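Deliverable D4.2, example record:
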Amino acid sequence: MREYEAYIFDFDMTLFNSLKGVELAYAKAFRAIGAPFNAAECRKYVQEPLDVTADRFVRSEAEKKRFIDSFIAESRASMASRTDPYPETEEVIGTLHSRGKGLSIASGKMRERIVAILLKHGLLERFDRIVGYDDVKNHKPAPDGLLNALNEYPWLEKKDVCYVGDSPGDMFAAEGAGIDGIYVPRGPVAECPYTFMIRDLRDLM
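Output generated by the structure prediction step:
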């Protein structure tokens, strides 16, 4: 594991455990289209864009809109109160920030939700840029969100920036952006093109 000058992070299941909030939001989304919801599949859903999950279950554009609108409405109402940082998150972000490292987030989560959660935990000011679901057209594994975040550091070479994430989609996005991918699986390890794999964010320090 090497040191970088800037660290771009995924949000859900990387910095914060959002599974409780995500489960509730997906339960409402599935109910809105009259489809059964399997909570055991939720960890898989959180690793992919919302519209990709919707496309597997809806039968029309109208159903897709209901699915996504229901998810977003429930997320707005309850996500911040049901999302908590991993035990090491605040220490790692604080340490990297104190060392003058660039810190950004590129996530498939709506930006307003990320901001609300970071504000709640006093971490918002640690980050230079936040790129959310609503900031890019093409979502992970496309590299668009990471390329947006990279614009915050025009003086750095790509070799000096990494992306830290928990899913194969994160690692494919890092590969597409031309930067190192740091894989921190919070569950079973999947085959993906990571540069380094860690089990705890403290390994970044």
